[in-house]
C-alpha cells in the first residue's frame, strides 16, 4: 500500500499479463510467439562469424560473414519488437495486460480521474449506503505556497491575485478550511441523526472529502492516463496517484515502463 496525500493510498489489487505476453500477442501476426529477451546467439551463424570482419579486411574472403548479426554473433531479443510496437503506436498488444487498483483520494481527485472513460471500469463506495468517514484533504503549507509560485506558468493553477502567498496566508486559509470541514460534518451528522436520507444528508460533504474506489483498466489505458496525469500541467494531487501507478507498472511491466519513461521519439 502506497500512502498518498494526508489520508489517501493506492494499492494494487491484481495485475495480469506481462511484457512477455505483450510480445507474444503481437507475434500472432507472424505465428511465432515470444522468442526471448536478448541479446542471444545469432541463429544464423551460431556466433561463428565473430572475427570474420578482420579476416575479410585482411584476405578479402567474405565466406563465413553473417548479415543477420553483422558478424557480432548476437542478435537483439524481443526488447526490439516491444520497442517497435511502442514507438509506432501498435497499441493493441498492450491491451492484453492490465491492472486493478484500489484508491483512496479526495472527491476532487476522483472528479478528474473519472473523466478517463476508455478502457476503465470504476466502482466507488456509495454515500447513499454508508456515511463517508470524516476525512478531508488539507494540503500542506508548502503545497499552497509552492503551488502559488509555480502558478505563473500554468493558467489553471493561477492564484486569484498576483500577490505572493506567504506561509501565514496559507495557515490562515487552512484554519478557515478546517472550520468549513468541521461545519460541513456537523450538518452531515445532524441530517443523519434526524433521519434525513443518507443520499440527501451528504449534500454538505465537500470535494475535499476522501472517498474510496477500485479502478480497473488495461495497460494501454493506464499508459494514456499517465501521459495526461503525470504531466507537469496536471494537478499536483492527481499527479501523486499517477506516479504511484507508474511505480506499479515499473514493477510489473519493467520493459514497457522503460519505453514509456523514455517517451515516443
Ligand atoms: C491538464 C488537464 C486539464 C484539464 N482541464 C479540463 C477542464 O478544464 N475542463 C474539463 O471538462 N476537462 C478537463 N480535462 C479533462 C480532459 O478534457 C479529458 O476529459 C481527460 O483528460 C480524459 O481524457 P480522454 O478523453 O483522452 O480519456 P478517455 O475518456 O479515457 O479516452 C481515451 C481515448 O479514447 C478515445 N475516445 C474516448 N472517448 C471518445 C469519444 N467519445 N469520441 C472519440 N474518441 C474517444 C480518445 O482517443 C481518447 O483520448 C483536463 C485534463 C487535463 C489532463
Ligand atoms: Zn550471425
Record the SSE blueprint.
Layout: E1 2-4, E2 8-16, H1 19-26, E3 40-41, H2 52-59, E4 74-75, H3 79-87, E5 98-106, H4 107-113, E6 121-124, H5 141-150, H6 167-194, H7 198-201, E7 210-218, H8 219-229, H9 236-252, H10 254-262
Helix pairs in contact: 3-10, 5-6, 8-9, 9-10
The protein binds flavin-adenine dinucleotide and zinc ion.
Zinc ion binds near residues 66 and 68.
Instruction: Record the strand order, biggest sheet.
Output: 1-2-5-7-6
Fraction in helix: 40-55%
Shape: elongated
Strand content: 5-15%
Computed CA radius of gyration, to the nearest angstrom = 27 Å
Mean pLDDT across every amino acid position: 94
- Contiguous low-pLDDT stretches (5 residues minimum) are none
Tell me which ligands are bound: flavin-adenine dinucleotide, zinc ion
Number of strands: 7
Structural class: alpha+beta
The ordered string of helix (H) and strand (E) elements is EEHEHEHEHEHHHEHHH
Q: Helix tally? A: 10
Rounded to the nearest angstrom, the distance between the terminal CA atoms is 34 Å
The major sheet is characterized as: 5 strands, antiparallel
Kindly describe this structure.
By secondary structure, this protein is an alpha+beta fold. The protein has ten helices and seven strands. The chain has helices spanning 19-26, 52-59, 79-87, 107-113, 141-150, 167-194, 198-201, 219-229, 236-252, 254-262, and strands at residues 2-4, 8-16, 40-41, 74-75, 98-106, 121-124, 210-218. The strands form two sheets. It has a five-stranded antiparallel beta sheet with strand order 1-2-5-7-6. The mean pLDDT is 94.
